[in-house]
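REQUEST FORM: STRUCTURE PREDICTION
Request ID: SP-0412
Submitted by: Lab K.M.
Chain count: 1
Length (residues): 516
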Amino acid sequence: MKLTKEDATQIEACGLTVAQVKKQHQFFVRGQLHTLLEKPAVVADGIIRFQAFESQQLVAYFDKKKHLYGLLKFVPASGAATRMFKALIEFVNQFNPETQTFNEYVNKNKAHALKTFQAGMEKLPFYGLVIRHLKEIFKDYDACNEDEKIVLFINHLLTPQGFNFQNLPKGLVPFHRYKNHLATPFEEHLFEAALYVKNKDATALHFTVSENHLQLFENHLEKIRKIVSEKTEVQFNVTFSFQKKSTDTLAVSMNNAPFRNRSGELAFRPGGHGALIENLNERTEQLIFIKNIDNVVVHQYEKEVAYYKKMLGGLLMKLQKESFAYLRDLENPIDQAKLNTVKKFLVEQFNIFLPVDFEKYTFENKAAFIQAKLNRPIRVCGMVRNEGEPGGGPFWVKDDLGNLSLQIVESAQVNKKNKQQEKILKSATHFNPVDIVCGVYDYRGNKFDLTRFVDENAVFIAEKSIDGQTIKALELPGLWNGGMADWNTVFVEVPLITFNPVKTVNDLFKPAHQDR
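STATUS: Completed
RESULT:
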């Protein structure tokens, strides 16, 4: 790949180096590497299932000890609502009322989601708001036929002439309707966080947002902050950050040549949610909960959801306490019995597989190996039963040296042309809801540099388009996939109530989003 002086100047202005960009280009030349699945993680083989009394003990432990930690809820929230309204946007762009009826469009295009939307419209949190506004603008709205009404409704919902929902960040679209107000997922995250991130009457949340949406989020925060604080009796410390320009990645043509825009400059794209490891790395709190912006519930379910967050947090605290004690032991001379105890903890609690020739190591090398493996960031991840949702799941993965480790794997990382790999992928019993608690400090009280624990080879190569031309895009190792590949990992089964994402507008009809 040849770069000009002008290219080098552009690269440096983005906060990147020429060496980094050349390395990115080599990923395209090499092609997509696939994760090698050994088997799915299941209960009693990679996933822990707690009995009720055990989870109660962990929740009590969390409540007792949380004042000793700096706590944070970290919420990736840069996604736009466009995908959520995909079926409605397609309808607006394709429907011709002069040549077809609504039902004809649904049948011709097999748009069953659109039919479901029509049938459940009145359950939408914003239904009354949109209808009232429509009737103010269109005085003869009530005289319209059903096809005319739904066209008007959808247009008014999506476009700038109405509520412009398709161009809002998903975090600011109303998800829930209560007696006196509509609530966005941004607001619901504050209410939920007050139940388990609260420390000394303060609750800290951090949202990663698109830079062009920051003002919208800040305005919304100012609008709701006082109300939420009064209801929860806590003060909220809310901060925001953006994906760094230095995490942007090179785009290439389909033959792997650097793609250039109409001005002849190199084209760069955001590096995907894997770039957020940089944002996470800048946080200074000791215990961080990660949860996606669209995974919220109405108030009646929040305490149950918070209970399982505390359970995961309590487990992390206990594991961290024990591992820190062992790491301090390893700083001093120890005997074989103590080393065996630490090794047993590492294998049984963190599912670490030792090298096949480990027993041939000298005693000193055994201790050094165990110490290095134990002194890493810890993540405790909730896993829900697989209900057919698209996305990642928990698997035992084999690396190039034949070592096994627990990883969250996206389907895009798997070579589905390999029948055995496809079979393992489909046999997963659990699904990753992005319900993660992170311990990011070491036993000496120093924060880990999280960028040191990333599998840089776990990049995604995807087809995208720029200016109407198909290109290849590079996404950095996913935040909870390759981005945390070298963390000590524990998977715990949690109930389905903890996983209620809104991927499409029709998900708002589900019970977890309907206030009773």
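NOTES: The domain at 5-81+171-513 is CATH 3.90.550.10 (Spore Coat Polysaccharide Biosynthesis Protein SpsA; Chain A).
Reviewed by: T.R.
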